[in-house]
Structure prediction request, 819 residues.
Amino acid sequence: MANKAKYKTAPLKCWKKAKELRNKYYEDYAKAHERGGLRWAGGAWTFSAIPSGLGEDVWSLSSEPYGASIAFNKELSLRCLEATEKAGYARDLCAYMRNYWGSIILNEYAFGGPFPKPDFLWQDHICCSHAKWYQVVSDLENGIPHFCIDVAAGPYTEVAPHKIDYLVGQMHDGIEWLEKTTGRKYNDELLIEAVKNEFRSTSTWAEVCVYNKQVPAPLDEKTMYSLYVLGTLNKHDRSTADFYDELRDEVKERVESGIAAIPNERCRLMSDTQPPWGFLSIFRYMEEFGALSVGSLYTFGLIGIWEDKPDGSWGPRTTPMEQGIEIKDRDQALRLYADWSLSKPEWQHFYSPHLKTEMMIRIAKEWHLDGVMLHYNRGCEGLSVGIAENRLGLIEAGFPVMAFEGNMGDEREFDEARVRDRFDAFMETLEVKKD
Amino acid sequence: MANQAVLDQETFETFHNWRVNRAEYAKQWKKRTGGKIIGYFCTYVPEELLYAAGILPVRILGSHEVQDVTEPHIFAMFCPFCRDCLAQGLKGRFDYLDGITIAQSCLHIRQSFTSWQKHIPVDYNYYLPMPNHVQSPRAAPFLTKELEVFKASLEKWLGRKIDDAAIDDAIEVYNRNRDLLWKVYELRKGDAPPLTGEEAMEMVLSSQMVDKQDHNAALETLLTRLSKRESTRSTGTRLMILGSENDDIEFIRMVELCDATFVTDDHCTGSRYFWNNVKLNGNRLENIAERYIKRVPCPSKDWPQRTRVAHVLELAKTYGIQGAIVMQQKFCDPHEIDTPALIKALNGVGLKTLFLEFDVTVPIGQFKVRVEAFLEMLQEDDLF
Prediction:
């Protein structure tokens, strides 16, 4: 750890555009009715390309990033959490979900004005809370039509035609339900376009992450959060796919020019699970040691779709378009979409922590890491599931691990000073000193 | 009265002994039959298939003892039940198992399975992707296919086919067990139920631990005895208990010593385990799949409609309950989300509820004070 090399650094040119796209997303949703359009709500994992077939005036509110946005505003978040608890819901439930419910109960939209009630709910069921999240939303809003697709067909290593059939069958039922619920005729061309956008955006995001294998890394994870979020909001939208192309080109250029995320990189780490959104300053604290998080399975694999490359490395999954597949009809689009989505890395761990450990070890090796920070996240059972086994597996593989407990969306469960102390101790064990 | 006392002691002794001495029973069963034993983590596992293969399926449950062996394996924000189950494996209390299996349900118990897979070697393990969207018409065909894969996996492990006749026999034995349990539950509807909630729990829990043929024989005897049994205790306030996994006999006993009787429940260790049968009609695996899809759901699968609420209200009505104890394992997300809706529904039909959060051990003294206050409140309702 004696390397004190200093690197060139520069702000991202496309940073402003990322912020604009995010703000536009939340504004489009809020103003959908003024424009004569439709609003729907659902999770970041959900098959968001499917409602696109209802028309180009359909806007969504993605639940987890919305919960995270509330968490970032500690004052609002506390009021939301307390409102949810007052309504009788347990304090240890998903923190995003509690923030979201609180926003409805208080009738306050995090981006100004009253909470914009969705016209329908289009959800996926990945963890114990996902489908039930919107059962409660429907209760709180006096009834909203709700459709949810179960994706629990098993890990991608065991994918089989009947598993794809299970998802695709539900998707077909969902499209019929969307037509009936909205009274609109479904447009398959729009669906195909949206599915292609999603293939492109999620593969390109993986490509962006691959560039972080470079030493020094062109991006730090705190910055990546503001970029990957577009994939959690609007992964099926052309604006996201185009933005990720632009970002990929810029990151490539940064690598070629030797532009680093931080000037003093000398300790490369990865995190795990969502960060405590109200305390992202801990990432800046790490930089005082020349330590940066180059990413995580979470930032790489919640949105990014990956595959094994011929040279044995992990890289962006080849899209159906790149394979020369022409998508001709609804069923074909849905089949490709189901298969693509089931291969998502930040999904396999729901079946086995051992699959996640393997992916984490792979990242640790290919991204040249010195250690791992595991956020034992009380706010998300879905991403904390199996995390203790991940710790054991990483240690067994020879990677130093720092575990810290916190909550992505409930500031009452995050002790910043204690985590900083723990990080100091971790740096000491890695023999890394502050500048 | 002397005969009655003997009867009381004997009536549930078999079930109690099976529950308490489950390891001894399992080892003797193995010796007697030469069969294999598979531990399962969730009642969505289609036991009929295992039984047809000559395997004894036994449910893995906790011990209600404080333990310190699971901390390295399961983050403490997950439910105490899943950690207690894993602890039993880590302590070697299920050393007679040849395999383990789980049907997909909540994330909590899934971790007991995956940690067991890695740290407690067994000859066979299988994760069954039981669909969560049981309200979808796509669920049963999907599960049927998954059962075919499961069956093939078992056959490969055992080195022999599971034939149709064996599946038919297994379905018959399991349906018989459910019918008999249901008949005993019917007796609880009477003004003076001939069994307590504690006894009912012993009966259902033991059915998850022993060969169903042995259990059926014991249930037949039980039904005969219950028909002659005169209750020697006051029924007191008629209660229902519902919520997460619950095998806390000590708690049930404590409540029933406060002039109350649990007359029904909605637990996977109770009525939810046996409420519906496999209806044989053509394809056997399809029929088994239908049974598990259509059973009274765990809240993790009860969406988008909340069908449990109507079921619980129906139980409340038919069993004539006067109040309900809504319990949950600490951190049990699916139940935590359902609880406000259930309490609202029960209150809506004039039934008061007491909510209690359970851990591996429960504070009996504190809970007793709360239960007594709850019962006093219900009794005041009768007075005024």
Chain B has 16 helices and eight strands. The mean pLDDT of chain B is 95.
